[in-house]
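Next up, sample data.

:::
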Amino acid sequence: MDDKEKVIALYNYIAEVSKSFKDTKINFTEEKWFSFFDDIPKHENIIFDYKNLDNSYFENEENRLLEIKKPTFLKPLFLDENLLKWLEGDWKDYKSTLTIKEEIVTEEDKEDISKIINISSEIKEKIEKELEKREVWVKEQILIEEVRTFFDTLYIKYLELNKDSETLELVIGNGIVSIKNKNVYYPILLKKVKIDFDAKNNVLILVDPLTNENFSTTLYTNFLNEIDDINLTHVFELEEEIKEKDLHPLNKKEIDDFFRKFIHRLSSNGYFIDDEEMLNIKEEDILIEDKPLIFIRKKDTGIVKAIESIVDRIEKYGEIPNQLLELVGIINNKEDSKKNNSIENIKEEEILFVKDTNREQVDIAKQIEINDAVVVQGPPGTGKTHTIANLLGHFLAQGKNVLITSHTKKALRVLKEKIPKNIQGLCISILDDDNSDMRKSVESISEKMGHFTSDNLKKEVEELENIRINEYNDLKDINKKMYIIKHRESQAIVFNGESFSIQDIGTFLRNNPKILEKIPGKISDLVPCPITNEEFRFLSNEYKEIIDKDEEKEITLGLNELADYLDEEAFKNLIDSKKVSENEFKEIIKGTDFIYKNKYLLINDKELVDLEKFKENYSGDFIPKELKKNIEKWKIEAAIAGLTNGGNRINWQNFIEEIKRTYKYSSDMTPKLFKKKINFSDLSLANAKQLVQDLKNAFDNPGFLLNLNLKKAKNNIGDKVTLNGELIKDTSECTLILEYLDLLIQEKELKESWKELIEKNEGISVDSLDGNLLDYAFETLKDIEYFLNWTHSEKDNLLKNIEKIGINKENLFDDTDISIEKIKNILTSVKDIEKIIEVSNKALNLAKKNEEYSSYLKNIDKITKKNSILDNELKNSIENEDTEKYSLYLEKLKNILIKENSYNKRKEILSKISKVAFDWYEALRNGTVEPIEDVYEIWKWKQLSQELEKLEKEPYEKLEKKALEKVKNIRKATLELVEKKSWYHVLHFIEKKENLLVSQALRGWEQTIQKIGKGTGKNAPLYRKQAKEKMATCQKAVPAWIMPMNKVIDTLNPAENKFDIIIIDEASQSDLSSLILLYMAKKVIIVGDDKQVSPLDVGTSTEKINTLRTKYIERKITNDDLYGLNSSLYSVASTTYQPLMLKEHFRCVPEIIAYSNKTSYNFKIKPLRESSSSILKPAVINYKVPGIRDDKRKINIVEAKTIVALIKACLELKEYAESSFGVISLLGDEQVELIQKLIIEKIDTIDIEKHNILCGNPSHFQGDERDVMFLTMVDSNSGEGPLRMMTDGTEAARKKRYNVAASRAKDQMWVINSLDANNDLKTGDIRKEFLEYINNPKDFILTEEIEKNSESIFEEEVVKYLVSEGYHIKQQWEVGAYRIDMVALFQDKKIAIECDGEKWHSTEEQIKQDMERQSILERCGWEFIRIRGSKYFKNPESTMKDVIDELNKKGIYPEKMESENYLIKEEELLNKVKTKAFEILQSWNNSTEISIDTQIEVSKTKSINIPISEEIENEVIKEKLVKEDVQEINFKDATKEKIEVKNNHNINEKDIFKFLDDENIKYIDHRIFSGLLWVMYDEDKKEMIENFFKKNNYNYFLEKRGTLLTSGKAAWRIKNL
């Protein structure tokens, strides 16, 4: 099986699997939801008149088909109390049935006697009148309830469609075909519509897009495919009519005729119901009716069709991307060593990321450069969208076209917002059927075309690249300096081979403060002492004895060195050679207009040659030998002909072919004609050829009997044509002569061509060649071809070379826009160029000599002192070119220098000092000399003092700020560079000639859109059609597409559209059909996570799939057994490519991600957020309720109502004002539907939209996140013993769902459950493990206690100081993969403290990692205080005072200042929410209104009580007992079990407090605030206390460190008491 067949086999398998998923409904009542238009309530809050739509409705771009505003119920009517008491029932409840009492019992005020009073006729009559009014009110209320119910239903469908937009669509249908005996009932005309929600006005809108092709009316007949005795072929012809008329299912004027036409073509037994009497209809008859409806159905994916087109293309062209070949097991021949080498060559600065980045993202960018595919594992919250946005910007800057896709649109929704604003126009984001983004993109590109060209942008790109590289280099320098400082802080200072610790230096200098005064000022760093003790004595004593003041005065001005001057002979040679060069240049330009001026060669005052460039680039003769010959006119003509592909070029090309053909023919004939002489007397070539041809024919056909044909031919030819003087004997001689005659004809034609093309254009004449034309023509062939192709192959190179050596083309050639004239100018100017080069060489030689002279004069001028007579005389002799005077003064200089030795010795010593200690040099030069016994010792301590001072004065923090500034500059430059480069590539593409249609479409589309205007004109439909056609062409200019996979298949033809790179997000959710994407990509990045939800296989037979696998791919492709129903693109790709893992977690606080990190990722995830980054405390909440799972359905009403109450409570608190909310059911979708309906019933839709409240299962949330999540476990245990074990599931499916569910919350996660982990669940049950985590989330956080924390004395001293000052310090604090020296804590605040000067962090790699670590942690919100060893050891007290000031500024104070109410504060928010939720539930329980939307069977006479967690209920009950003096609270009929539980708790409470009091054990009862009881630790009674806890099943934990509440003393914490 070859490569192609393997890939085709895989695609055929996927197609068949996709077909098996397809479920064609024949009855729309089986679809997810439907509603007939006639069933929609009629109310003033509903605008809906589908039966009276006029033409104006169908002419707009889109219309509102239906609008519904949720009405409020009317207030109850007023009724006097005296009348109200005579009524049985609730007057205010419109659902209540009221009856009039005939008598009532009343009590007298004064006497304790009851009386029976009968109703009077007057009162009865009044009540009956009021009841009549109430009946009108009731009817209105019922209608309002019906409208509200319809609104809620439609809103739920709006949410469902948004949640499952990839698989579901909303359509209006009409023309329902029914076949009673086949259960067929389905509309034929379908048109997609959409629901919009105006949250501000609480209005739902059914939008009918009329011009968007995604919403066009379609003829749907799939439901009829299996019906016999019908004619679908004739029906299909009606599809064109739908397109032509733009038929709408609600256009009453046209659809009736269409329905008749359809049904009559479909079957002879077909009837349109409006035309027939229903009495005559038979069961087998096929009916169609005009009965519009709206319904939700599954989308047709189009996968099978896409695969068929791909397979067809592979079979035809064999195009298969490498990654697809590797996937099926075809070995790629690329060498891994090359990959390894090339990845090292990719510099990080070449990767253009516009956002914060990390090592993993850089690795992805590098890997995709050298591989065809990269697989990325992206655990929850690890910045996949951020990574993709970075990669997209990088790829656009490279000029690549990119597709980013995903199984769902959730992961793609925010992607475009993360892309730099100025290149968003290059990205089309199509997440649903709205194509407006495509229009925006085309507008953006069209606008850009009007303002920029690729050439403009290219220049800007080059400038930005230079700026960015400079910034990068600056940052490297700064980082290097930072590294040096950190390195030096951690190292001893080495001077002159001796090592000194920072601590020793600081101690010595503190004890000897005056030693530094002997050498004033600053000295150079770490250089040895510049002078010896002997030299110091010479300066201070000996010099004054050698030279007195008068002698020094003579040479004070200073003498120049002899070496500064040329000797006499050299100076004479310089002057002589300069004069020779001047004469030579004058000679060569004699009689020309050439001038040499300012490094330019000019002609007629125009710059002709830039001699600097000439000097730099001229390396010899570059003019081709063909151009050095005489350029005749025919050569110029040939060059002009070669300019285009027109007739002249064709003539020359034919001429070339004619020469070649004739020459070859002549060569072939030469051996044949050897010793042959052919004579044809005076005959013309044509006559001779005819006679010979007739003779040859006669030889072949001499005649039937007497050879009459042959005789006749011989008579005709006679001896007119002879071979070697004899008559022609046979056919072969005829053939030879004919070939010879053909040669003569060809030579004749060649002569004519030569005359026309060469001879007429000053070329050599035919006659002058003495019959050697053919040989000469063949020799000239190369010149002909050269000049014919010269324009395209040689001209630009010649001009480039001319320009390269500095010749100005504009001033060399005559200015003309005519290409022909340009060519003539160039070719006729070749000789001029040679002359120019010769002149330029001479000019250069002259320039060189002048430069030598000027340079020498300039050097002398520099060293000439104003007051020196000798210097000035020498300078004048050079200026006057006087060699004799020059020799005289040079000799004088030699004599004076001999007297200068002693002066120079002093100067030399001072010079050495001045280079390294200028201030000391100044003091010595002026005679101020401090006595020094040992100059070396003093110099050493001066050096060491400076090193210490330098470390202190060049603070690391300043460099950090500079580095941050550079990073910002680089980010800014990168952003601009990405924008410019991206637009450059797009405009460059559009400007190419082959893309002219795209350019025209872009410009034309804009004009067409202007014509459409408001879209109401009579030509608007035509303009829209034209705009649509142009849009299809415009799309080719867009380099980046963002769309879910279903839109990829709908919008792009997978077989035809190819992308440089495709990025597939959430690939672990994408089933095997997504392998289509691999065919569309040159390279692919697959992002997913095999620990999260995989594709589901609900409703499909595994046996059937196995049969298909055996048939198509078994033993044909690698790992064929892994291509199952639960297989994802990620899992399949991971078998071929090793995934790169994103490890840094940005989404959740550590407590929330801890569960997933431990159970699914083995602690590989590195959480970077701190708990203190969220104000919502605690992060994880175990919220127990006494709920009961329904026996028949997977619902738990108590959990459902509790969640909705909790959300409603959160919405009332300011802490949740900006929070988004989500709800996940861990057990099926029935609970999801229940909660969704409750949310809509109990929470305002405005709040639902504002807080983005979504309810779903884990797969609905994959790729999504919320600030706060509520998880419902649904399960409960009503029986004896634990529940049946629930494992991780097949292929860990359940574990994956739990992983997704537990990692969606950013700040807070509530788990509402009805289970006791200890009693209801077995060990190994996934629910038990999850509840254990919820109960103690911090136990799941990976920590490592380090006993010996200090890594150095320096760090130990700092910790001891801070602790002694009362600060709470934790050493070696772990943050993800990183460790911090120490962290200062106060309440929920943390500050990192780092000690710079540790030998443990002294290598280059360690220091670089340290710097990178700080950068990443600061990005995640950490603040750092760095303590420098150089500063600390010099002055410890001052340094630590600064540290404490900094800590206090940042809100970190000593522990003693922490409020004991801090823990109370932490629990305060939780208790607020719980209390509010309890009150909300109580209000619902006490309400008489029962929702009809929840579809829960509820007794009409009883209401359901929803209990809350025990602790909060107890608190609220106690409050009510006190405030209302209520003796008994009835919690209705659902509290029996709960009362028993409460009684048990009361027993436990009495037991534990009696035990503690009896044993004299101290405790803190904090249950009312935090739900906790703290039992103080007692070492002697530890065993007894813990045995008691275990015996009574208390949930306890020993806090060894204690808390603020226990004053830091150890205590047991008891929860849920």
Remarks:
- Confidence is low (pLDDT under 50) at residues 1342-1348, 1488-1550.
- Residues 164 and 673 are 88 Å apart (CA to CA).
- The longest strand covers residues 168-179.
- The two ends are 71 Å apart (CA to CA).
